[in-house]
UniProtKB/TrEMBL annotation:
Function: Removal of H(2)O(2), oxidation of toxic reductants, biosynthesis and degradation of lignin, suberization, auxin catabolism, response to environmental stresses such as wounding, pathogen attack and oxidative stress. These functions might be dependent on each isozyme/isoform in each plant tissue.
Gene: LOC111314189
Catalysed reaction, written as an equation: 2 a phenolic donor + H2O2 = 2 a phenolic radical donor + 2 H2O
Protein name from the UniProt record: Peroxidase
UniProt keyword Oxidoreductase, yes or no: yes
UniProt cofactor(s): Ca(2+); heme b
Gene Ontology, cellular component aspect: extracellular region
InterPro entries registered for this protein in UniProt: Haem_peroxidase, Haem_peroxidase_sf, Peroxidase_pln, Peroxidases_heam-ligand_BS, Secretory_peroxidase
Residues involved in substrate binding: P163
Cofactor binding note from Swiss-Prot or TrEMBL: Binds 2 calcium ions per subunit.
Binding site for heme b: H193
Domain Plant heme peroxidase family profile intervals: 25-324
Taxonomic lineage of the native organism: Eukaryota, Viridiplantae, Streptophyta, Embryophyta, Tracheophyta
Length: 324
């Protein structure tokens, strides 16, 4: 009792906001009694969709990350804008978040079995895990459950909380620290960029206008930069996408760290991980595949607990795009 009060006080004092700390305790198999098949229904539905669309693991992993970083893992990322409010999903960094309709479908499958019991936040956390794990035929990390859904989603919150691909190391560390994540977590979780794609405009200043006078980023592999220029023809290209881990962007592995060491990290935020000794040591550690899988699992569990709503907080949404 005393301990939790001290913790709460610490949260308020250190973070200045309750948002990052109001989370209660998540549990293993929270729906065991209330909806015994929930996790299996979600897994089956997720796998059905992933089998048809191998881009989904990257979409869901990024969606879960964005959800957790903006107001905690409470599914606010899934809410649509309304007449009086522009939702998080409209934020520029959300440019390519898609797969919302698929989450809606997975949620509908659970609702059929147990209406009003399983939160959208848990559906998203589980779908992210199960989609990435699909090819491995076993879960890559443990997802505790019992999250509840938030009722607000504001574009300003997304812009204020999400790290930018143009951030330097200092800014990245600060951004993660506010969420209770350290340098080790930052490096390990950046390994999520081993799958998926990035739009040209999220890195093209590195190719065409790094110095503000048309120069190229010297920390970007020159051979790779030349290749990227054949894909992204100008600074204003905001439609073309390239693989973040070239040749291996559908394969979840530690290869991101291999290319990172070759100065082929796509964003400035990726390259920034080589600019600090502590971070660089972790990058080197992640070249050991089994260590990466182990540490990624730990870090995802930590990320999945950021600012969660539990107990009687929030609600269990019926549909994920709109509050009840
Ligand atoms: C360290 C700070 C991070 C920054 C600055 C960042 C930035 C970005 C950007 C700019 C994109 C490309 C979006 C686009 O152009 O469509 C992207 C994609 C992606 N990010 Fe991150 N990210 C970060 C951390 C993470 C973390 C922690 C995860 C998950 C563990 C993650 C998972 C992904 C995935 C899977 C994609 C690919 C999405 C797709 O293919 O649709 N990122 N990220
Ligand atoms: C999930 O899929 C497996 C394999 O197809 C099936 O045996 C199982 O009954 C399904 N579970 C649920 C809860 O639908
Ligand atoms: C919610 O927004 C998504 C795009 O963010 C859109 O595709 C979908 O049609 C919207 N759903 C409803 C019911 O308005
Ligand atoms: C927006 O309007 C809805 C009703 O359409 C209302 O319930 C909600 O409180 C309003 N939100 C804000 C932030 O004003
Ligand atoms: C990192 O970026 C911040 C914000 O743009 C800036 O104030 C700071 O000087 C930068 N730090 C380094 C080491 O470049
Ligand atoms: C290049 O960057 C400089 C400084 O940020 C900016 O003034 C200029 O407009 C940029 N050039 C282009 C073509 O966008
Ligand atoms: C992409 O660029 C075009 C032209 O520069 C602009 O009209 C459009 O709004 C941009 N789209 C996005 C999603 O930023
Ligand atoms: C640039 O990338 C190539 C592979 O594409 C690699 O052989 C080379 O070592 C890299 N250069 C640097 C400076 O990392
Ligand atoms: C999918 C989605 O909602 N995309 C939005 C991302 O942000 C841009 C710019 O604010 C919007 O125009 C898109 O609709």
């Amino acid at each position: 009792m005393m301990k939790s009060h001290i913790l709460l006080l610490l949260c308020v004092v250190v973070f200045g906001v309750l948002g990052t700390c109001h989370g209660g305790v998540l549990r293993k198999n929270y729906y065991k009694a209330s909806c015994p098949d929930a996790e299996e229904i979600i897994k089956n539905a997720t796998e059905k969709h992933v089998a048809k669309n191998l881009d989904l693991p990257a979409k869901f992993l990024r969606m879960h990350f964005h959800d957790c970083f903006v107001g905690g893992c409470e599914a606010s990322i899934l809410l649509n804008s309304t007449s009086n409010n522009t939702a998080e999903k409209q934020a520029v960094p959300n440019l390519s978040l898609s797969g919302f309709d698929v989450i809606e479908d997975i949620k509908a499958e659970v609702e059929k079995e147990c209406p009003g019991v399983v939160s959208c936040a848990d559906v998203l956390a589980l779908a992210a895990r199960d989609s990435v794990s699909y090819k491995f035929k076993k879960p890559l990390w443990e997802v505790l459950t019992g999250r509840r859904d938030g009722t607000v989603s504001r574009i300003s919150e997304a812009l204020a909380n999400l790290p930018s691909p143009f951030f330097n190391f200092t800014s990245l560390v600060q951004n993660f620290a506010i969420k209770g994540l350290n340098v080790h977590d930052l490096v390990v979780l950046s390994g999520g960029h081993t799958i998926g794609r990035g739009h040209c405009n999220t890195f093209s200043p590195r190719l065409y206008n790094f110095t503000g006078r048309g120069g190229q980023d010297p920390s970007l592999n020159a051979t790779y930069a030349a290749f990227l220029k054949t894909k992204c023809r100008s600074l204003s290209d905001n439609t073309t996408t390239v693989e973040m881990d070239p040749g291996s962007s559908l394969k979840f592995d530690n290869h991101y760290f291999v290319i990172l060491k070759q100065h082929m990290g796509l964003f400035e935020s990726d390259a920034a991980l080589l600019t600090n000794n502590h971070a660089l040591k972790t990058v080197n550690d992640m070249l050991d595949s089994s260590k990466f899988f182990k540490d990624f699992a730990v870090a995802m569990k930590k990320m999945g607990a950021i600012g969660v709503l539990t107990g009687t907080q929030g609600e269990i949404r019926k549909k994920c795009y709109v509050v009840n």
